Each structure stands twice: as C-alpha cells, then as structure tokens.
Fold each of these.
Amino acid sequence: MDIVHERAAGLDISKRDAKVCLRLPGQRAGTFTSTVTTCGATTGQILALRDVLEREHVTTVVMEATSDYWKPFFYLMEDALPVILVNAKAARNIPGRKTDVSDAAWLAQLGAHGLLRPSFVPPEPIRELRDLTRARSIATRDRTREIQRLEKFLEGSGIKLSSVVSDLTGVSSRRCSKPSSTGNGTRRSSQASPREPCAPKFPSS
C-alpha cells in the first residue's frame, strides 16, 4: 500500500495523558520505525510534544475524538501542525489491525497510508460562538427549572402567589414574597405595602 505520509504521529488520548506513536522512516529504504511514548495532558507538556513533532517534521498528526480530552491537544497543535481528528469507531473498524498493536500505533499507521477521513472541527471564531450560544441555552433552561421549583415550593407552602401575578420573578412577586421570606409573622408585615401593591392577574377580555 502506498505511503502518503512518511512521517506520521498517532495520539491515543485519555484523561490524564496520551500515548504518542511517532512513525518515522528507518535506516533502510522502505522501512519505518515506530516509537510509543507517554505525554502528559497539561498545557506545558502538550506544547513540549508539539515542539518534538515539529522538529521531526511530522506531516500528519492523528488523534481520536475521545470525550472532550482531545480538545487541549487539538487546539494547541492546530496552528503549527497538520492535525486531524477522527472518529474512534471508524478507525477501529478498518480491517488489518493486529491484536498486539496499540491504538496510537494503529492511528499512526492509518494516518501514514491516508486511510482516515478527518472529522469537521469548526474554526476558532465559530467554536467561541457555539460555546456562547450553548451556555446561554443552558442558563435559560436552568432559570426556567428554578422558577418551576419556586412555584412548586410556594404551592406546597400554601402561598398562591402564581394565582395573582403573571411572573413569579417580577417586581410585584418579589415585593409580595419578601415579607414571607423574612419570617415576620405579623399580619401587617405579611401583606404587601399599600405603596407597593401586587399587580393582580386578570383574564384577558
């Protein structure tokens, strides 16, 4: 089978570290040597690994999309090295793998022959925008859940606040619920101040 990349590297990434296989041409023509080492997952260790791969003139770096563990490696290497992210299932389903070959060595071998299809990774501006929209969606969903929990708590306490106001988080609702939350049991303090009335909820005509 033709060799597409004579200098290739495969990364089998886990939570704490990554197994790195460096596949380089051997002393004889047509032969290759593979060296598997372990690299830590901290920023400094990833940058040191990037420098090593640059010195070896690696033309392709293959890593599996394992959870979110691949992100620090990919993001720190993408500007300096030709990094490709591949689906783990697709890499394992390619026939011809020997049982004693590590995942990193198998990735390096497949990358050297150009047998892997890279997964799409959006550019950094798109990633930042996507993270922002996801964070906003999560915050909105959590806010709705907390409002529903507040209404359930008030109903269980015999406080029919949602029957007289349209928004439990509005100004009128907070004015009505503030005396109850302070624990003052007097009748005068448990009601809203005449200057700060609760806005009743009327059905639309």
Amino acid sequence: MAKRTLRNPKTGETITFLKTSRDTNGELFQMGYTMSPHAAIADEHSHPHQEMIIKVLSGTLTCTIDGRDEKIGAGKEILIPAGVNHFQRNDSDVEVQALEEYRPALQMQEFFETLIGWSNDGKTNEAGLPGLLRLAVLQYYFKHTIRSSSKKRNLISRMLAPIGIVLGYRREVEHYIRSASLEQ
C-alpha cells in the first residue's frame, strides 16, 4: 500500500499509515505519528482487543496510562495492554514524532479515516470530538477497536447510536472508509 498521510487540524496530529490490516493479513496496523507542541489526542480511551506499542522517535510524549502519567522520551517505547485506558499529549515546546503499532490491526485505519475526516470537514469540536450522535455511531461502528474510558459516555452512546444511524451518520462513516479505499 502507498503511504497515506492524514492531518487532524483540531488535535495537531499528523499520521501516516505505514502498515495496514490489508498489508499484514490483519496482524498489525502501524503508523507514523507527529504531535504538535502542547497538543493532545481527542479523548482518553482503550483498545479492548488490541495491544498498542508507542515508540518515541523524537521529543517527549506524556502518556496517561490507567491514571498515571509517564514521560516517554526519544528512543523509548511503552506497551499498553488491551483494555487499558490511556491518553497521549505533548506538554513540550517541540514536536513529538513516534511510531504506533496495534496488534491485531482490527479497524484502526478506518477509525482514523472517519474521525480525521469529520475533523477536516468541520464536524468535530475544538478538541477533535464529534457531537453526541456522531460519537455514538463512531463508538458503535468501532466497538471492537476503540472504547471511551468514560462509562457514562459509553452508556449514552449505546442509547443514542440507533438514532444516529437513522439520521445517516453510519452512512458518513462508510463514506469515509469507501473514499479512503478508492485513494489507495
């Protein structure tokens, strides 16, 4: 697969798909990752069925893992087991560059295509999160890949997902996935 790069204007993240589910028969999703100074991902979350490895190439990434902050500097890596809540941010004045690996791949590429697509199309808030109905459909569609750490948000999403689906937000998810597959 040709490398594909996405930029999230709300979170200050740039990601480049290096190895996808298609490339690895579902075993691995790997991406290059750049985070702007003083930026953060959209929300604390877990991957219920995937382990994640973050390898920092330059800068220092702060990862909150199960409520504890860990600073990961250049040349270091951290393993986040399946089901463990985590959040990444760049507290410094310099850009962070890292590699992220997810095993198995599941639908990580499709998740990023959708979330960053919405962000680029103005369908997220300033933190990079979509509104409640879109978020509910996102969590429903990718429930085996990613889950919010907020039990309240997960409960609300389960209740609102059917409404979001009826309103067409599932078609939006499928549109971003289809559009991405045509660009590859």
Amino acid sequence: MSLPRKGVPDLAKAITTIEWEQPSAQEQTVRRLAKVADEAADAADALTAFIRWIQLMHEKGWLQAMIAILEQGEDIMKILVRQANEPEYATGLKNLIGLTALLGQVDVEMLRSVAVAAREAKTRVTSGQIQPVAGIFPLLAALRDPAVGTGLAWMLEVLKSLGQAVAQPDPTHAPAPSLVTSAT
C-alpha cells in the first residue's frame, strides 16, 4: 500500500457531497421574468384581447362595481341570504329553478317552426294575401286544406293538454289519449 504524497490529492477517495452553486435572488428574478416574457409572447393575441376586455369593463364601470362587490362580499352575501329567506323571494328562486329545468325540456326545433309559421302568417295577413274569414262557409272551406287540418289538430292537442294540466295540477299524471286520430 502506498501512502499519498504530501500536496497530491487522494484521487481514490469517494465524493460524498456535491455543492451546487445557488443562483442569487437577482438571477432568480431575471429567470422568472424571462419565463413570463416567453409565455406572454406565446399568448400575445389572448393577452391583447384580455387587456381590451379589462379596458371595456373599466370604461363601462363594471370593473369598479365588481371590485366593490368583492370588497363588500361578506355583507352582500348576508343580505342575499336574508332576502332569500323571505317567502316571496324563496318562491321566486324555486320558480327560477323550475323554469331552468323546463327550458331543458323544450323542443327548440318545434318552437322555431311555430315561431316561423306565426311570422309567415302575420306577413301574409298584413300584406293582404289572406282575407279574413267572414262566416261559417269560408271557415268550412278552409278546413278542407290539409295544412289547416294539421294545424287545427295540433292546436286541439295543445288545448287538451292545457285543460288537463289545469284540471290535474299533478305533473306526474299520465297523458290522456289523443282527440285527433291519424288517417293512416
């Protein structure tokens, strides 16, 4: 076994710790700012739109209102809870929830077709294309039109459903059989 010579490091000795040089606080700040600048450059369009949105909210006074609400949030929440406990407000909230649920059941395409039909009929009546029905015989003649028969059958079904809903306010009742039979 040879002994290490004086002044020569022992190369066979194991390294037990590694000391990494820690960046200074200023270097860490520079790195963070560079990262933010890179992210901002990548999202320049989104940031521009966001800044425009904030500016518009400030111009309209909404930003100040939101700040005031956030600053007074606990007091506002207490007032809202107190008001929600009042019977008329509680009923209104229940109605709003029910209306929201009802909107989920609306057949938008059917509603759109009814609105379009009403608009077209109004246009034809106001332009003079359709004359008012004067008497029973023109009414009976109009019933021969298949489109009139279909529309009338639909309206009778709506009236029947409304009548049942008024007579039986329980929404879980089974629907009654149709008044209008199909000619198939």
Amino acid sequence: MKITRKTALSSIFGSLLAIPSFGKKPKSKDLEEFRTEFLQAWARSEEYTLKLFNQVKPELLDYKYTPESFSFRTQFVHCIVFNSLQLCGRLNVPNPYKDKNNSHWSALSKEQLAEELKGFYQFVGTLVKNADDKTLMKEHGFSGGPIPMWRLFYAMENHIIHHRGQALCYLRLNGITPEGFVGW
C-alpha cells in the first residue's frame, strides 16, 4: 500500500491532536477544592478586615486624607456595595444592598457598620457554598477578558485587599499603628 506524503502528515498531526498536551484541553477546576480554599481564606479576610476596621476611633470614620478621596467608612462601604453588585449581577441573585443608599451608610455607627461587614462576609460565603459547579465554571466578562465565576470571587477578594490597604494607611496617618497581618 502506497501512502502519500499528505496522508502521512495528516495521520501524524491528527494523532498529535489526540494527545492532551497537543490538543486543546477542556477547562476544568476542582471546585470542591476551590470552595474549601476560598472559604478558609475568606474567613481570614473577614477576621483581618474587622481587626483593622475596629482599630479606628468612631470620630475618624469619616476621615479623608484629601477632599476627593474615600473616607475610612467609604473604603468599607464601597467593598460591600461594589462587590455585591458585581456578584449578584453575574449570579442573578437578589442584592441585599440594592436599596441602601448613601444616607443609610453615612448614618451608621461604627458598631452598625461592623455588623454590615459581618453580614457581607456571610452573604458571600453562602454564595460560594450554594453555587453549583456549572455556575462557578460559567465565564463572565472582566477587565482583561472573560474569567470563570470562581476566579471572580478571588478578584473580589483582591479588590477588598486594595481598600483594606487604603484603610491601613488612614490609620497610620492618624497615629494609629495597625495590628499585624493575620494572613491565610
């Protein structure tokens, strides 16, 4: 049997595509591992966020280092409102913060805002626990390109880290030495 060069090359390259390292791999993620890891990190994030938040004096809640910057309070309110909006919109779940406007947030005492933070952390933890695998694997638009929902939870935590870092600077600008980082 005579094999042409074209047939031989097609057979070789066709076989290579069947080998996982050469073919396109299906996207996969161990989502139980994600849930376990994320929820552990999320609990530590809540612990550190509240530790940092509780170090501010009530009279400094509305401190801004410049007129156009977020206040200490707003650093945390923004984390709650913005992240909930992003998650609820993509997961198509009711947003528990949608009717809470600026006057609501600005009227809260330090203790009330701490309770709102705790509620937010509980809300997100419940979303992660209850989301099915298909939902967590679904890709959504994000800056830089689409990402699966499970990665968006990490992006949201990264956003919180940024604002927590801003709050840490606010403490230092007011002569308060922040307590140490607790890590994951």
